[in-house]
Design a protein that fits this description.
This protein has helices at residues 4-13, 32-41, 56-65, 89-105, 134-153, 182-190, 201-210, 219-229, 251-254, 274-284, 304-331, 348-372, 377-380, 391-405, 411-414, 416-424, 431-436, 449-464, 469-487, 489-497, and strands at 20-25, 48-52, 70-74, 109-113, 115-119, 122-129, 164-168, 196-200, 235-240, 243-244, 265-266, 294-298. By secondary structure, it is an alpha/beta fold. Strands 1-2-3-4-7-8-9-12 form an 8-stranded parallel beta barrel, surrounded by 6 helices. The chain has a two-stranded antiparallel ribbon with strand order 5-6. The longest helix is centred in the middle third of the chain and has 28 residues, at 304-331.
Length: 498
């Protein structure tokens, strides 16, 4: 018999039209309207655009310029995996902003990674996956439910058009922690909340790579078992992006391990490898895939020429099949029970998860300490199915320092005068990494990694070379001014084209 939660999901799914094959894009990188001009010049069409979080003005301009297009929304800063997320003032502010962005775009869903960039007072530039434990799944499910209720209560959406919450399976950047399979983790979430899921094929490949499964079986065999166990009937969207060796990786890690499988991680700027197309072929034929509404190529930070080429290639191979699967979902008869009065999901879900929050909070504190290299995983008591020897060290010693120094803005480019003087004084700017992770910082403002660096680098300078503090503060002020202007630059850029 269908559960109340399943009925609620089907009811919400039934309101979403088929989106087909589309693109998941950033407004700014590359400039969205330059991309659209290039696609039009080649006669390439798309079913929809999934827009990554941007300024309100920029999103409004996108909707104004594309009044007839289906636009979806990829949110940022809603750290639903974290035990204290829902109660914070920052979460309330981010919820309000997300609702406004969704209403502006007219999106049928809100997608967010089941991961975080802020954990127990520590900030990262790219996603750190959730702990794959029962307590973590319960808290995440409760927060997804809270987000769905908050959107409904926001007053920004007409009856029947409240966007559906989608949780995206996160990538592994060399490692992951937990004591349950990813498939069981998401099945546990699905049993407790009527959200949908985004199946990112590159992310699934990283489970194959960093679980060590690649040593035992083919990717096709791994994927077959994964799809059978995953709640595929909740997958509303599929993502496909690039995979590549990270530029910070060591020479040994950059080579194919044992001559078999590359040391790839999720990389939107990189080409889509053939293995992901083969995986998509396998997913599209699975009988449990019965809620799909769209497939998006994630192309933010990719060159326009590469986007045009890849969209053409995927359209030729998969375009008709994707449309057929999505249209079949839209045409399928929906159970009458799901179309009755709006299903009410008992708020006990949110309350029940509070019992696990304290223990989970402690686990995330240890998780952050392990990732930074302050303690070992065994000392922290963190179980792991995804921790091959040496992989965590690659993250700590190469990826993480590169993230702090270069990702989201290279500090040498951001603070050129200050860094030149540091060099003259014989101080290596890489010391900023140790400063960054020396102590936790209260998470008392919305997450923005660029602005975090703008704020913290002058503090670092004030400690290591106080005579340069005023110089660093002056450069920081200029960066903030330029950043504010750049956020709405797409509006000005398009004004010139109108």
């Amino acid at each position: 018999m269908m559960t109340n939660i399943e009925r609620a999901f089907i009811r919400r799914l039934s309101r979403i039209p088929s989106h087909g094959l589309g693109l998941s894009v950033d407004v700014y990188s590359p400039n969205l309207f330059d991309l659209l001009e290039a696609l039009a010049s080649q006669g390439l069409c798309f079913g929809y655009l999934e827009i990554f979080q941007a300024s309100q003005a920029a999103l409004a301009e996108v909707r104004r310029r594309l009044p007839e297009e289906l636009l979806a929304y990829h949110a940022e800063g809603l750290w639903m995996t974290q035990p204290d997320w829902g109660a914070s003032d920052e979460a309330i502010e981010e919820l309000s902003k997300a609702a406004s962005h969704l209403a502006t775009l007219g999106s049928y869903w809100i997608n967010h990674e089941c991961a975080t960039k802020q954990m127990a007072g520590w900030s990262f530039g790219t996603y750190v996956p959730a702990l794959f434990t029962a307590a973590s799944a319960d808290v995440t499910a409760a927060h997804a439910t809270q987000l769905q209720h908050s959107l409904a209560a926001s007053g920004r959406f007409t009856s029947g058009r409240v966007p559906l919450v989608l949780l995206e399976i996160p990538p592994l950047t060399y490692f992951g922690f937990g004591d349950m399979p990813v498939t069981e983790f998401f099945s546990r979430i699905a049993a407790q909340t009527p959200c949908g899921f985004v199946l990112d094929l590159g992310h699934v490949w990283t489970y194959y790579r960093y679980s060590g499964d690649w040593r035992r079986r083919s990717v096709a065999a791994f994927l077959g078992e994964f799809l059978d166990a995953f709640p595929l009937e909740r997958v509303v969207q599929i993502h496909m992006a690039g995979l590549a060796v990270h530029e910070s990786a060591t020479e040994n890690a950059s080579e194919e391990s044992d001559g078999k499988v590359p040391f790839w991680i999720d990389a939107h700027h990189a080409p889509i490898p053939g293995v992901l197309s083969d995986m998509l072929d396998q997913v599209l034929t699975h009988p449990k895939l019965r809620a799909l509404k769209g497939l998006a190529l994630e192309v933010d930070t990719k060159s326009i020429a590469q986007i045009v080429h890849e969209l053409h290639q995927v359209q030729q191979r998969f375009g008709e099949r994707v449309s057929t699967v999505c249209d079949a979902v839209e045409a399928a008869p929906v159970a009458r029970a799901a179309l009755d009065e709006e299903c009410v999901i008992d708020s006990i879900i949110v309350e029940a998860s509070a019992d696990a929050a304290g223990a989970l909070r402690h686990q995330y504190e240890n998780y952050a300490r392990v990732v930074r290299g302050h303690i070992s995983a065994s000392q922290a008591g963190l179980p792991s199915r995804w921790l091959e020897p040496g992989n965590l060290e690659v993250y700590r010693q190469t990826y993480l320092p590169h993230e702090i120094l270069h990702w989201g803005g290279d500090v040498r480019d951001m603070f050129p005068e200050t860094c030149r003087e540091l060099l003259r004084a014989g101080i290596d700017v890489s010391a900023f990494v140790a400063f960054w992770f020396r102590e936790p910082h209260p998470l008392n403002q919305p997450y923005d990694f660029f602005l975090l660096k703008v704020d913290r680098f002058p503090r670092f300078i004030g400690e290591v070379l106080p005579t340069l503090f005023s110089c660093a503060m002056r450069e920081a002020g200029a960066l903030r001014d330029a950043y504010r202007a750049a956020c709405d630059d797409v509006v000005q850029h398009e004004g010139a084209h109108s």
